[in-house]
Amino acid sequence: MRSKTIVLCAGGMLAALAAHASIGPIPLNCDRACLEGVVDQTLAAMVAHDPKRLPLSADLVYTENDQIMPVGDGFWKTAEGIGNYKHIFADPEFGQVAFMGTMREAGSVLLLSLRLRLQLGRITEMEAVYYRQGGGGPSGIANLDKPGYKAEDLWFKSIPPSQRLSRQEMISIADAYFSGLQKNDGKGVNGTGTYPFTNDCNRIENGAPTTNVPRPANEPPNTINGFAMDCLSQFKLGFYFVVQNIHHRRYPLVDSERGVVWSHAVFDQGTVNSGVLSDGRPYTFRGFNRPSSILVTEAFLIQNGKIRRVEMVGPSVPYHLNSGWPGGLSGN
User: Fold this and answer.
1) Which residue of 32, 203, 209, 214 shows the fewest CB atoms closer than 10 Å?
2) pTM of the entire predicted model
3) Between vectors from CA 302 to CA 252 and to CA 325, what angle results, nearest 5°?
4) Is 279 exposed, middle or buried (0-12, 13-18, 19+ CB in 10 A)?
5) Percent of the chain scored above 70 by pLDDT?
């Protein structure tokens, strides 16, 4: 079914390119500035409802929330504008660029994760994940979209070449996050008792902080408040036992210059909502009593071999969604 859909998409794109032959290819040595320009061009084409404005490959693969469809369908028909928040990640070596930011649709704001792959001067892959208000999990889209709000400066610092980790080292650190979250035993990576977090690690999910959130003034003592903890404390407590499996893990983009790994995965949850934390206390997640999954895009900022920041986009999807993108790793 997937190959048939791709063939149909390819036929449509060949016709589109023939009708707009003036669209030139992207430079083969597309650097960071060039890649960021491709993102801007793509967002503008979405708002114009016109994919023919882009240098698309004839065999382009386009997905929205992991569903393969012809480019120009879905959000391309409903996009109303570009929002205020924009965060771009670039991997010039492998021709990958990705965007997390806000967009306008139906008079409201949504959160978009968009990954593009460039080959031979054309866009060959376009992977879009949309989180709309009420789409499951925490949400802070309105705050994220406030004029002047931007990602912390530490995301944009250039790491000296001599201090950069290899691609595989960075990917292994990101994957350790998913493995630690899936096991939720508080014992650390491979039972070492440690997790790869800095002491000031912070995470944002769908625009909302889910770590280091100040406790309410009237909160009773000893209340289990996961969002008030830092990354390391959550993992050591085994707080996220509600997540039973993290599968179809992929790491298509590594921004080596800035120490960022861009990942995709599917979180399965809801089949278990009560358990015992690593310190022996029982805990129940209210509302997590139905099978469901989250289609996760997660960007990890890694410094000195540890995760310092996490930025996530994650809408609800059918339980145990099987991603059509190749190369996904099973949970481990």
Assistant:
1) 214
2) 0.91
3) 15
4) exposed
5) 91
